[in-house]
Each structure stands twice: as structure tokens, then as C-alpha cells.
Write a structure and sequence with these properties.
With 201 residues, this protein is mainly alpha-helical. The chain contains ten helices and no strands. The chain has one domain.
Length: 201
């Protein structure tokens, strides 16, 4: 099996697990014990992996396009338990992409100072994969289409009269996201490249 594929899968799993755990901790901090009661406040990947999203889809995307993309099982929350009723769900949603941004920033700093720190080329390559994958995860999840995190942030900002639109979109959310990836996914490339250049140089 391709070594690059194995490394990429490991990085993907690490990144999506951190993403989901961050959702869980944010919900727990805001008063919703659901993620804790379901055992999701752990970095153990077995608690988070989804057979299709974490294994089959990444393998398929790698074989078809040479890139790896996937997801973990979403952390379930009860928004009625959240202390910040209006903004609580948005805060929990933003915690996931924020964790990916933090990972990207940490490893981009290691890349920038790889020379003075004496880090190997292999480590830099490994770090670059982490940076790219976490930038992609953060930007993709901020798209305002249900069930992505960006939709929860958007509908927290919009007036309550738009809630019926959210409910309708959530019925077909996965299909809409899939169509977006197929037909409009390339629109994210300039944004990803800009953030990557900004972080890594």
C-alpha cells in the first residue's frame, strides 16, 4: 500500500477526531453533557470513526483524484441544554473548524522555523500535509450548507424567521454538500491556497 496514502489517512483521522472532540468539549463547557455521556470526549479514534466517511470515502477520493478527504461521526448535542441559547450552537459549531485552524498554525510555524530547529525534510513534508489537510477541513466545514458547521453559524446570525429555510435544507443537506463537492469544490482552491501561503509563506 502507498506510504503517502497511509500517512495521509493517519493525518486525516487525527484531524477529524480533534475536530469532533472540540465540538464535544465546547458543548460540555456550555452545559450540554450529551457528548460526555456518549463517550465522545476522548481522542480515541475508535469512538469517532465512521466506516464510510473515515475509511471508504477517503480511499475512493484518493484513487479517483489523488487527494484524501473524509469525516468522522458527528458529535450529537442537545441545543436546548446550552447556556448561550442563541449563540450556543454556533459556538459549538465553530469549535471544530477552530481546532483545525489551530493545528494548521502550529505546524506551519514548525515549517517556517524548520531550518533553525534542524528539522528533517521528512518532518517538514509530514507537517505540510497536516497544514493542508486542516486548512481544507476548516474551510470546507465553514461552508454555510447543512449539516456543515458554517450553516449553524449562519443561522445563529440570521433572524428567527429564516429557520424554516434551515429545516428544509437539512432534509437534503448531504445531497447538497455532495453536489457542491462535485460541481463547485474547485471554488475553494483559491481560498485554500491563500490561507496556505499566508501561514507557510
Amino acid at each position: 500500500m502507498d506510504v503517502n496514502f497511509i500517512f495521509s489517512i493517519v493525518i486525516l483521522i487525527m484531524s477529524v477526531v480533534v475536530h469532533e472532540v472540540s465540538h464535544g468539549y465546547a458543548a460540555d463547557a456550555l452545559g450540554d453533557p450529551t457528548p460526555r455521556l456518549q463517550g465522545r470526549l476522548t481522542l480515541n479514534p475508535l469512538k469517532h470513526l465512521d466506516l464510510f466517511g473515515s475509511v471508504l470515502f477517503p480511499a475512493l477520493s484518493y484513487m479517483v483524484g489523488g487527494i484524501i478527504f473524509g469525516w468522522a461521526k458527528p458529535v450529537m448535542i442537545n441545543p436546548y441544554n446550552l447556556k448561550a441559547r442563541k449563540w450556543g450552537e454556533a459556538i459549538v459549531a465553530f469549535a471544530g473548524p477552530l481546532s483545525n485552524i489551530i493545528l494548521a498554525v502550529i505546524f506551519s510555524m514548525l515549517i517556517r522555523f524548520a531550518g533553525p530547529m534542524g528539522l528533517s525534510h521528512a518532518f517538514v513534508t509530514f507537517s505540510m500535509t497536516i497544514v493542508v489537510m486542516n486548512i481544507v477541513l476548516a474551510i470546507f466545514n465553514l461552508i454555510p450548507i447543512p449539516p456543515l458547521d458554517g450553516s449553524k453559524i449562519l443561522f445563529a446570525i440570521l433572524p428567527a424567521r429564516f429557520m424554516h429555510i434551515r429545516f428544509k435544507l437539512e432534509q437534503y443537506g448531504f445531497l447538497i454538500v455532495l453536489m457542491f463537492i462535485i460541481f463547485m469544490g474547485a471554488l475553494l482552491n483559491p481560498v485554500i491556497e491563500f490561507v496556505l501561503r499566508f501561514l507557510v509563506g
